[in-house]
Amino acid sequence: MDKAAADDTDVPALSLRNVTKTFGELRAVDGVDLTVPAGSFYGLVGPNGAGKTTTLSIIAGLLRSDAGTVEINGVDAARQSRVAKKMIGVLPDRLRTFDRLTGRQLLSYYGALRGLPAPVVESRAADLARAFDLVDALGRPVSDYSAGMTKKVMLAGAMIHSPRLLVLDEPFEAVDPVSSAVILDILRAYVDHGGTVILSSHGMELVERVCSRVAVIVSGQVLAEGTIDEVRGESTLEQRFLELSGGLGDVEGLEWLHTFSA
Ligand SMILES: Nc1ncnc2c1ncn2[C@@H]1O[C@H](COP(=O)(O)OP(=O)(O)OP(=O)(O)O)[C@@H](O)[C@H]1O
Q1: How far is the CA of 24 from the centre of ligand 1 (A)?
Q2: 245 CB less than 6 Å from ligand 1?
Q3: pLDDT per residue over 68-81, tens digit each?
Q4: CB 57: neighbour CB atoms within 10 A?
Q5: Residues in the chain with pLDDT < 50?
């Protein structure tokens, strides 16, 4: 691995160049360029179907792009995928995991996959369970968890090997306000200590509050990118988002909905 690159703070934590992914005729990701500085909290926003999950899946190595390059701390993710993958922790979009395992077993599994010694995994799992308020749930199968609990245990799993970059697809969706505040505190401290977070979210207010930079992606293309102030300009991020994504949908033609037939 290019260790010098990974240790150099001028090297972006993540860099995408002309990344493209098509599904049949659909260009889900259409020539995306992104530069995420090390130590930043980066938001990816966009309407449903904009290509956020597809982009994050490519970054995470869960999906192969058709064209373009992804570099994690200067390491080419296609050429040196093992090195690149070691540096990232991933919270995937759909919460598909080995849910017959208990929370404790799942965290042990994540830790073992990352090559951590068993005692380290055990103590980190205990720390994470305390932080995420999952101590009482650790002995239960993950299939019995609520959506928010599942998200939290998977987020804990994404962090267990202390990666340099966290790739989080909608980490706050279905998570209660107290847990959201705890997760935010953990992520902020992680970023303050040099870690990098890229997350997708539909929560404009949250992105505005916590992210240092944001990219607005619409129909697979980055339409705006920069610091929060640069992107929102004189308006709010939500107003800017609505403008960029083509405004509100057409609500005419639904008058029948107000006739209450039964
Ligand atoms: N495996 C797939 N096969 C075919 N089309 C796909 C596949 N995955 C995604 N798509 C399509 O690619 C486009 C982008 O989807 P993606 O899930 O990346 O959007 P998103 O921005 O994450 O949306 P949301 O906010 O609703 O989660 C959508 O039109 C979607 O239908």
Answers
A1: 12
A2: no
A3: 999 999 999 999 99
A4: 21
A5: 1-6
